Amino acid sequence: MELLKQRIMQDGRCYPGGILKVDSFINHQMDPMLMYKIGEEFIKRFSNENINKIVTIEASGIAPAIMVGYIMQLPVVFVKKKKPKTMENMLTTVVHSFTKDRDYTVCISNNFLTPDDRILFIDDFLAFGNAALGIVDLAKQSGAHIAGMGFIIEKAFQDGGNVLRKMGIHVESLAIIDSLDDCKITIR
After folding, report:
1. Beta strand spans in 38-100 (E)
2. Any known ligand binding at 113?
């Protein structure tokens, strides 16, 4: 997706340790027109999948997931990082955050993730694949089928994409970063 790649090169910032900041247009301040184009691109890439629900994990995946759900006219469910006291029929798994270097117990009600669901998981970043593997675990617990996983940005050098693809999951990344060595952004 050329528009996204241009924006990463223009406004993305690199930090030591393989961190790419895109907080001025994706995950803190958002560009809604870019998000809409991102939603359209995901829909194109997953058009052959029979999807009936969009799933994401809070918080940065919510905006692109809502765009996809809005355009496809499908419900959007987000996996929560804090267990609400009122959640019924809770499924949980542990996810490690690369950016924050901590583990989260994430949860979703199996009222909203069922064996009838063919889900498209949408998130902002794919690095080591920890959040995505958490979704795989939650889908397994609920009996839901993962029709695909879409990521705005994949950091190919951190191998999460390879792990998911080897599992047979249809993965689409709109921009693939091959390297952040010496804080130079190299996009495939």
Report:
1. 53-57, 76-79, 90-97
2. no
What is the domain extent for residue 52? 2-187
Domain count, the chain: 1
| Residue 42 marked ligand-binding | no
27 is in an annotated binding site: yes
How far apart are alpha carbons 4 and 68 in whole angstroms? 16
The CATH number for 121's domain is 3.40.50.2020
Q: Determine contact, residues 26/4, Cβ cutoff 8 Å.
A: no
pTM for this entry:
0.94
pLDDT of residue 163: 97
Span 60-89, average pLDDT: 88
What band does 17 get if pLDDT is binned at 50, 70 and 90? confident
| 127 appears as a binding residue in the annotation | yes
CA distance 125 to 3: 17
**Average pLDDT of 169-176?**
98
Task: Give me the mean pLDDT over the 126-141 stretch.
Answer: 95
Residue type for position 58 = E
Residue 104 main-chain phi, psi, to 5 deg: -125, 140
184 is in an annotated binding site: no
